[in-house]
Amino acid sequence: MTLDLSKVSSTYFDKLFVSKKGEQGSMRGKVLLVDKYTTPIISMCYTQSQLLQQDVILVEMIDQQRTSNVKHLDCVVYIKPTKESVSSLVRELKNAHYSKYEIYFNNSVSKSQLEQIAEADEHEVVLQVVELFQDYLIVNNHFYSIYLSGTENFVTDETSSLCSLLLSLKKCPIIKYENNSINLKRLGSEVLYHINSNSQNNLFDDLNQNSASPPLLLLLDRKNDPITPLITPWTYQSMIHELIGINRNIVKVGTPEESLILSDASDAFFQEAMYLNYGDLTDKFQRYVEEYKKQTKSSSVENLKTQNLSELKKLLTKFPEFRKLSNNILKHLNLISELDRQVTVQNLWEVSELQQIIACNLENYSSIKTKMIELLDKPSISTENKVKLVLLYSAKFIGECKSNGDLSLFLHKLSDSSLSDPVITISQSKLIQNFNKIFNFSSSMTGDGNVNNIGRFFGGKKININLFSNSSNANNTTNNIYMQYVPKLNNIVGDIMSKSQSHSSTTFSTLIPDVVSQQYGKSIENLQDIIIYIKGGATYEECRLIHDLNASTDRFEIILGGDDVLNSKVWLDKLYDQVNDASLGSGSGISYATSSDQTRDLL
């Protein structure tokens, strides 16, 4: 199986809901019972129409108390095998409200949990118990997110979710992790142990049998690139998340607030436009509107009068499509209008240009400082955007900030109510003063004594994707001043694709599962499938980067994921929490150091 998350989604939908031929009662209505973990999985992968087409007429939470019996309905249970959800299932089975139950878990279930279910099935209503492996959220076709909110056993659950991803993709990988992160060392070791221990029940055996080279699980730490989430993005999906916010494919916009669904699977325009820059987006939307006008012109009242009955019938059958198209145009019009408003209100043309100048070293220190002061003196620039600029500046010019007192000057301006409204908070002030302490700590652990090593977060080479593509049109460069910055992920993946040793020997440690070692030996060559996980969260701009790399070559296939989908606000909130909770003097704020179809029928 390729690294195609939409195929995983489609496969599991069929297993969950599509009735098999010859099944008795296959036309009966179904109730879907879910928990708080599988609810977002279902909502992000499947539409209400898809569920209705498979006779799913009701969706309920498994922990809700039901009072009435509905024996004319069958029940599909799709839950995560947590203690709470299994207890709710046991309670439901002891007092069965539905005719028959098909139980699906989105990850491995323990023997003791199976015994609980078997004991609770006093009425013998359980038809089957099956393990699926989708303990993660599918954001885009090549972008996933692991849901870990409120978990007590963070590393254990993180490992379990990553392994479910591997099993759903039918991949047993080599593991590489950034060796300056204790968290990644622990996570990598847990994934290795999980794979090796599950070889006894054949879960990871033979997954790579049709591949000439092993896949790679690449574990990265967000703390090794704190800059990318701070840079204002200028492509459609990224801008929506940055300026409005996307929560599990739902965008809330307008007054009164309206919820809009964004899905590349069900929205053709969004699929084509999601990675376009702001200028190309507006052009494409205009063409989209013109095409709609052209299609609907022939169905106007005046034109209908001239049609014969046969042609009239054809036109009438298209009306639902026209209405759907009209609604989609209105949706994207609302989104683009709100983006345009935010760009103007936040003065993002000025802010973003200076961000790019700082991050990409486009001007000298003196010129950049002058522009910084000009923007900090403007009350029309939001305090949050000023804070982001100061963070970028302080990371770029560490020595100058110390010797020239630049940070003191900037903090004074941010505390002046005539220049900044509102003035900076205590958390923002702490972050500005300690930003370099936090991330210099990570650079010192790599053995590089250069105190300015944080500068490695900025700029850097771009992948020459023509090396990996036969297309003469493939080009990863841009003359757009607002899109000069390239995330650090670009360099890491580029080194892997070009077999460069600049990262592999000094920056990454490698773990090889037993089953992979037995099949391929200890050498790592000719990698093709790369599964990336960023602990601390990934951005939509990094997702766009991976999309562009996938489009440029047929030699590699890459997917990206993380434990959060970041925008600058989410990332800043994480940093505020860190500086408020951590004892920066001791450096304790960051942990750095040196089956064939993949489901199991269980009952």
From TrEMBL:
It comes from the Eukaryota. One of its GO terms (biological process) is vesicle-mediated transport. InterPro entries: Sec-1-like_dom1, Sec-1-like_dom3a, Sec1-like, Sec1-like_dom2, Sec1-like_sf. Signal peptide: none annotated. Pfam families: Sec1. Belongs to the STXBP/unc-18/SEC1 family. This is Piso0_000761 protein. It comes from Pichia sorbitophila (strain ATCC MYA-4447 / BCRC 22081 / CBS 7064 / NBRC 10061 / NRRL Y-12695) (Hybrid yeast).
